[in-house]
Write the structure tokens for this entry.
Amino acid sequence: MQDDLQLIEACKKRERFAQKVLYETYAPLMRAICLRYSGAMSDAEDLMHEGFIKVFTNIKQYSGKGSFEGWMKRIFINLSITYFHKKQKHSHFQSLDEVKEINLQNAVTDENEEPGTGVKSVIMSTEFSVDEIQKAVNELPDGYRMVFNLYVFENYSHKEIADLLKIKENTSKSQLARARKSLQQKLYELAIIKMKNADHLKDGKSFLKLVI
């Protein structure tokens, strides 16, 4: 902690080496945050660089109270929200209130399913890497992804999300539910692929035993 405080103080004095160390220390985490919200690596890189400029410009405002990492994260999250609003304004992007319920044929509960064969059972019995789950999140529609990230990762309330995204509180709730259904669908489909690949691998190993 003392080393961090010394690094922060050095950055407040605009010492280039300290800025370089701080950047290299926190860049991976901040890039991941920006990617969660933007959904595209090129946009995430732009947001990350812009975010660090704001960090170095405003670092004197950090009082030393509370988590410095948390202070930085708020800068990057706010930038991502600003990016979201700009994207809404300058593209043919549907407002969150206009997005219709998507058709998720497989996103159902396990009721009336054979034990172990329901969607949730299949998903929970499958091992997913962090990258696979993050990829599924990144592929969510912009509105779904924003609400999901703010609620799940940042622990914002639906009221806070509604205020930030300029939407209704009920819209935030419905978008979260739809985001979860969409993720369930994506992970279920990935689980089926992984199961099929596992079966092929087993067949291959059995064949190898015959020929070696």
Q: What stands out?
A: The chain has nine helices and no strands. The chain has two domains: 2-90, 119-211. The domain at 2-90 is CATH 1.10.1740.10 (Rna Polymerase Sigma Factor; Chain: A). The longest helix spans residues 169-211.
